[in-house]
Amino acid sequence: MNHVTTAPPPRRLRADAARNQQRIIAAARELFADRGLEVTLDDVAERAGVGVGTVYRRFANKQELILEVFDAMVTELAAAVELALHHPDPWLGLVELFEYSCRHMALNRGFGEVVLEMHDSMDRFVCMKERVQPGMQAVIRRAKEAGALHPSVESGDFFAMVNMVDGVAGFARSVNTDVWERYMTIVLNGVRGDGVPRLPLTQRALTDSEVERAKEAMCNGRKR
């Protein structure tokens, strides 16, 4: 007597699980960007449109989800570094990489928090440096060799400059979400090689009123 089994196809289940995982990671990235790391796994489940149990089957706790988001961010940053490294114009390659990094920080409230969180998972943090730092150094070196970048600029300066722009973005976020582009351009113009045309400032400066309102918003945020 032949017995017919009715077990569901395993390949379909794996595909469903992969789709759910990607939806969860995408939802977490959106929430981290909007609200930082204060969000809960319940919040993530709601944004992803899946049951809370589905989230907990994929990620035992929020730390595991943060690690997944971090890995995705590093993969994208590594890809941006590769594009910059192979850009036909060494300076424009550097500019595009710097803009990518600044935009990512300025529009993503949680990215800096995610990076800080990685200090508790040093293996992942070291892995990020190993994936990104050599390419970043090559992008800097290539621009310097072309005479487009001031010879004293080093790869460590790149991260400092990104954080300088992010500081402005964080300060002005409540009154002007695009003004960081102005200061990104000012920073880039400051490190250009001598004799190379400067980039135009496409964003206006903050008004005195906006500065005062931004200060007030920052003070109110610290009191909460």
Could you explain how this protein is built, in words?
The structure is a single chain. This protein is mainly alpha-helical and 224 residues long. Helices cover 72% and strands 0% of the residues. It contains 10 helices and no strands. It is globular and about 60 Å long.
Give me the count of strands. Answer: 0
Mean pLDDT: 84
The portion of residues assigned to helices is over 70%
Total number of helical segments? 10
Structural class: mainly alpha
Largest sheet: none
Rounded to an integer in angstroms, the radius of gyration calculated over CA atoms is 22 Å
Q: What form results from the Cα inertia axes? A: globular
One letter per element, helices H and strands E, the order comes to: HHHHHHHHHH
Distance between the termini: 72 Å
Task: Report the uncertain regions.
Answer: 1-13
Structural key phrases:
224 residues, mainly alpha, 10 helices, globular
Short description:
This protein has 224 residues and is mainly alpha-helical.
Per-chain topology:
Elements lengths: L9 H26 L5 H8 L3 H7 L3 H24 L4 H18 L1 H9 L4 H24 L9 H18 L7 H11 L17 H16 L1
